[in-house]
């Protein structure tokens, strides 16, 4: 069996406990320790003239290799091109996009540096799985250095439609970079369609049935791999929370009121100002819910060195203060707003207690919180998920109340509907959603991608085969 090599910007340290590390990190670590493997990424450290070689250490069957970066390169790579250009582009926020040539060059330099540091650690039959938009050029750099083995890439965020994607000055170079992978995984069929349409209509690529793509003399496959969660772990944590001290404190603080919950990194893609406004609108237009429902928004700080994120934080503080100022009673505060992380078990307890889960991103690759909320519910008395149609999860979670996150009144109406929904309908909707969450777990996702990467190059057929120029449906 080929050794698996995973590349991601941040690497979950072997000491990070499962409850803290997050489902994705745990699943990747499991996949690596089952087959034996290497996890390669940024050390989190910067240093002027950093060493060419990574720090390498072993834990069980997994080898970790962590690379330091030059501070200016790290800024251009992470805050610059990855999060100042690609993140807003892929989330359809062209007004927030900045493109600087120096950042694009820094982004490529960091990828080159990663490739040079990784190459000496590789064996020819290793299989490499690269994660996310920080590393799109990595395969091209590894190929330049002579690595010919299998390389796959998974894009955790949305892939924008061609009209939006064409705003990127480096659009053709970046997709040319993608063509050095053997397998490119995206979250949804919509994302796949967007990328294939761009390839066939803008850069004269060939699309064969089944998603195999030809670009210049290279072939690669593009397919959807919707990511899941560790559903069992969430169910167990949620069930364990029943009768716990945390559950008791939460119940006591709510004094019999309903709870609506939101859990999102403090990021402009998550639609938090619209969600706050919709909750205000609920209290204004459906006064019967005043004093009867509390909303809890958990929003740990993220990328707080970036100006847009600081502005968003101020905006939410103002909006939240205004809602509480307008509606609070001496014994009821409508909105609880918390900027801190929690252990998975605490999140599970909060989700389970919530009658409504409010997940309303403006765009989201998948949104794992939506799936976690479903997994944590009591099957006998489940809550209702209000979900943005622009989250990847909306493709699978058809039992949710789907909303347009730009429609404040529509979201308020959906929250009202969720709060008054009869038990039988809640159960039915929850069952529809839970079936998806249970069948497509993070373990299935991991296995499916690895299985496909193992065999993908066999499907390309012999060189010289005639390809149909099929346009994606
Ligand atoms: P994110 O944008 O981070 O992920 P999401 O998919 O919701 O978004 O995952 C967030 C994770 O962080 C969840 O597991 C959640 O439980 C956890 N989390 C959030 N707030 C927390 C808190 N206060 N304390 C502890 N944990 C907290 C990116 C993409 C998504 C895609 C994922 C996975 O933007 O679209 O679904 O990657 O591919």
TrEMBL record:
<dbReference type="GO" id="GO:0003825">
    <property type="term" value="F:alpha,alpha-trehalose-phosphate synthase (UDP-forming) activity"/>
</dbReference>
<protein>
    <recommendedName>
        <fullName>Trehalose-6-phosphate synthase</fullName>
        <ecNumber>2.4.1.15</ecNumber>
    </recommendedName>
</protein>
<dbReference type="Pfam" id="PF00982">
    <property type="entry name" value="Glyco_transf_20"/>
</dbReference>
<dbReference type="GO" id="GO:0005992">
    <property type="term" value="P:trehalose biosynthetic process"/>
</dbReference>
<comment type="function">
    <text>Probably involved in the osmoprotection via the biosynthesis of trehalose. Catalyzes the transfer of glucose from UDP-alpha-D-glucose (UDP-Glc) to D-glucose 6-phosphate (Glc-6-P) to form trehalose-6-phosphate. Acts with retention of the anomeric configuration of the UDP-sugar donor.</text>
</comment>
<comment type="subunit">
    <text>Homotetramer.</text>
</comment>
<comment type="pathway">
    <text>Glycan biosynthesis; trehalose biosynthesis.</text>
</comment>
<dbReference type="InterPro" id="IPR001830">
    <property type="entry name" value="Glyco_trans_20"/>
</dbReference>
<keyword id="KW-0808">Transferase</keyword>
<keyword id="KW-0328">Glycosyltransferase</keyword>
<dbReference type="InterPro" id="IPR012766">
    <property type="entry name" value="Trehalose_OtsA"/>
</dbReference>
<comment type="similarity">
    <text>Belongs to the glycosyltransferase 20 family.</text>
</comment>
């Amino acid at each position: 069996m080929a050794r698996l090599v995973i590349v991601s910007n941040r690497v979950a340290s072997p000491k990070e406990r499962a409850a803290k590390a997050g489902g994705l990190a745990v699943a990747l670590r499991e996949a690596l320790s089952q087959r034996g493997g290497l996890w390669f990424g940024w050390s989190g450290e910067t240093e002027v003239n950093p060493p060419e070689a990574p720090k390498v250490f072993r834990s069980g069957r997994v080898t970790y290799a962590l690379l330091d970066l030059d501070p200016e390169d790290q800024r251009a790579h992470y805050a610059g091109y990855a999060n100042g250009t690609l993140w807003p582009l892929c989330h359809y926020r062209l007004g927030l996009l900045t493109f600087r040539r120096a950042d694009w060059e820094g982004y490529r330099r960091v990828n080159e540096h990663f490739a040079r540091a990784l190459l000496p650690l590789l064996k020819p039959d290793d299989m490499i799985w690269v994660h996310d938009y920080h590393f799109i050029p990595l395969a091209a750099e590894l190929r330049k250095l002579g690595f010919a083995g299998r390389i796959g890439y998974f894009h955790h965020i949305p892939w924008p439609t061609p009209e939006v994607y064409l705003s990127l000055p480096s659009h053709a170079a970046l997709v040319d970079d993608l063509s050095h992978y053997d397998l490119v995984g995206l979250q949804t069929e919509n994302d796949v369609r967007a990328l294939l349409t761009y390839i066939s209509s803008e850069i004269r690529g060939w699309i064969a049935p089944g998603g195999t793509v030809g670009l210049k003399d290279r072939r690669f496959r593009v397919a959807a791999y919707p990511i899941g969660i560790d559903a069992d772990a969430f169910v167990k944590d949620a069930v364990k929370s029943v009768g716990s001290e945390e559950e008791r404190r939460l119940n006591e603080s709510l004094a019999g009121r309903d709870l609506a919950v939101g859990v999102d990194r403090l990021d402009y893609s998550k639609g938090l100002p619209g969600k706050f406004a919709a909750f205000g609108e609920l209290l204004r237009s459906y006064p019967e819910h005043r004093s009867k429902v509390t909303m809890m928004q958990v929003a740990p700080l993220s990328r707080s060195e970036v100006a847009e994120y600081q502005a968003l934080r101020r905006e939410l503080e103002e909006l939240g203060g205004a809602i509480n100022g307008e509606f609070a009673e001496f014994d009821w505060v409508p909105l609880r707003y918390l900027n801190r992380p929690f252990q998975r078990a605490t999140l599970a307890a909060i989700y389970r207690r919530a009658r409504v889960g409010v997940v309303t991103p403006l765009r989201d690759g998948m949104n794992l919180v939506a799936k976690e909320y479903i997994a944590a519910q009591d099957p006998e008395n489940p809550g209702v998920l209000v979900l943005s149609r622009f989250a990847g999860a909306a493709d699978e979670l058809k039992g949710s109340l789907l909303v347009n996150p730009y429609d404040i009144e529509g979201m308020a109406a959906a929250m009202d509907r969720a709060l008054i929904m009869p038990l039988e309908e809640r159960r039915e909707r929850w069952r529809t959603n839970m079936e998806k969450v249970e069948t497509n777990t993070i373990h299935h996702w991991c296995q499916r991608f690895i299985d496909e990467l193992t065999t993908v190059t066999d499907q390309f057929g012999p060189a010289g085969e005639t390809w149909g120029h099929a346009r994606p449906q």
